[in-house]
Design goal:
Elements lengths: L4 H60 L2 H24 L5 H25 L7 H81 L14 H49 L9 H18 L2 E9 L2 H8 L1 H16 L7 E6 L2 E9 L2 H15 L3 E3 L2 E3 L3 E8 L6 H15 L6 E4 L6 E2 L1
Parallel strand pairs: 6-7
Antiparallel strand pairs: 1-3, 1-6, 2-3, 4-5, 7-8
Length: 439
């Protein structure tokens, strides 16, 4: 039968109290028995003392044969008779010795009465033979009483030993049984405590490691079962809360990511052209101003290319805006492939593109780059199997020769581009007509 721990502890308490009461009761019984034994032995010793006094008075009476000796002997004999009666009433021993003592004491009393009766009748015990016979009778009776008292004393001692051993064995067995039961219950309770605490310890370790899915499975139903259920409920609540928190955190991260993406998208759209993905005019101007500040500190040269597509309006009007957008997209991709990572590329609007060539060592580099861009942009663009030829005009301005501010350099490159327009198809030139070239 599985007992819950509180009941086991209650049983342990009751067993402990029972053991205490058993010890107290055992000690009380031993003390009571010892007290009775002492009383009996003292009573026997008192009988022996009275018998010795009686022997003394009888001797005195025999020697002097006076009335005083007779009365003392008679009083002692009667007192001994009363004590023998009380001993017979109080003692639980075999009464054979007591009966003998009473009988022999009565014999002494009868002899004394006979002696008194003889004296009243005028008979004398002065004859030596009669006197000797009476003395011998007294001595034999006293000796017999002494022997019976000795045997009574030995029986009392033996009986006391027997009862004492019986009480010791009985009390010892009782205490041993209670102690064994108490030890068994204590060990079982301790073992259950160890099992319960070990179970809770493992559960706490798993929880400390972040394991919220495992559960405690007690093997018995007791207080630890209730604790395990509460612990499992707590882990379940934590698991649900953690899942909700993780879902909420995931949702927040998703929303944050979407907001970040939207923010980056809005920022990108605010700085870039929606069709080609290049810098718009405002963003391109800001980036060039940053580059100009760097170039001023390092005394470096830079170049700006203003690119305008030829025949774009004609193609856009003839084939439609979709074809025009396609041409602008292809042109932007070709320009991206021709510039360095340190260079800047933007679309000012319509078919106008602008390139910033940063950190150049000489002017010829700008002309060579313009020549490469023009060669790339004059290549036909195929749309739905139909080649479309788009030319370009490029105007060039050099920092710091053609201007030190963005507006100055852009205006100079724009004017140079318009200077290249009257030339033949696909041309580029420097502002103020410097190093004019045509292809």
């Amino acid at each position: 039968m599985n007992l819950i721990i509180s009941r086991r502890l209650l049983i342990l308490s009751l067993l402990s109290m029972g053991l205490i009461f058993a010890v107290i009761f055992s000690l009380f019984r031993l003390h009571s028995h010892q007290t009775e034994v002492n009383k009996e032995l003292q009573h026997i010793m008192q009988l022996q003392l009275n018998l010795d006094i009686l022997r003394s008075h009888l001797w005195q009476f025999h020697e002097y044969e006076d009335q005083s000796g007779f009365e003392q002997a008679q009083r002692t004999q009667q007192a001994l008779a009363e004590k023998l009666v009380l001993t017979h009433i109080q003692s639980d021993l075999q009464p054979l010795e007591l009966l003998n003592l009473q009988r022999m004491n009565a014999t002494i009393g009868a002899l004394l009465e006979m002696n008194v009766a003889s004296s009243r009748l005028g008979r004398s015990l002065e004859q030596p033979h009669a006197k000797s016979m009476l003395q011998a009778r007294f001595n034999m009776t006293i000796q017999g009483m002494t022997e019976d008292l000795y045997r009574l004393h030995q029986k009392a001692i033996n009986e006391a030993q027997r009862v004492t051993l019986q009480l010791l064995y009985l009390n010892g067995i009782t205490l041993l049984i209670i102690a064994i039961v108490l030890a068994v219950f204590a060990y079982a309770t301790l073992r259950r405590f160890k099992v319960g605490f070990t179970m809770l310890h493992h559960g706490m370790n798993d929880l400390a490691k972040g394991d919220l899915s495992s559960r405690l499975c007690p093997s018995q139903k007791d207080e630890f079962t209730q604790l395990a259920e509460y612990f499992n409920q707590m882990k379940g609540s934590l698991e649900k809360t953690t899942i909700k928190r993780d879902l909420l955190q995931y949702e927040v991260e998703q929303q944050t990511s979407q907001l970040r993406s939207q923010h980056m998208r809005l920022r990108f759209l605010a700085e870039h052209d929606d069709l080609t993905g290049l810098y718009n005019r405002r963003a391109f101007e800001n980036q060039v101003k940053i580059a100009l500040a760097r170039d001023r500190r390092t005394d470096s040269m830079a170049g700006m290319l203003f690119i305008d597509l030829d025949k774009f309006k004609e193609i856009n009007d003839t084939h439609g805006h979709d074809v025009g957008d396609f041409i602008l997209t292809v042109t932007a991709e070709r320009l991206k492939g021709l510039i360095r990572e340190s260079d800047l590329l933007g679309r000012l609007g319509g078919d106008e593109f602008v390139v910033w060539l940063d950190l150049i060592s000489k002017k010829e580099e700008v002309g060579n780059k313009a020549q490469g861009i023009m060669e790339a942009l004059t290549q036909p663009i195929e749309y739905l199997g139909q080649p479309l030829a788009v030319g370009c005009s490029i105007g060039i301005s050099i920092f710091p020769y053609d201007g030190k501010q963005f507006t100055e350099l852009l205006k100079a490159a724009d004017q140079a581009m318009y200077s290249a327009k009257p030339q033949q198809q696909s041309a580029y030139c420097f502002y103020r007509g410097q190093n004019l070239s045509e292809t």
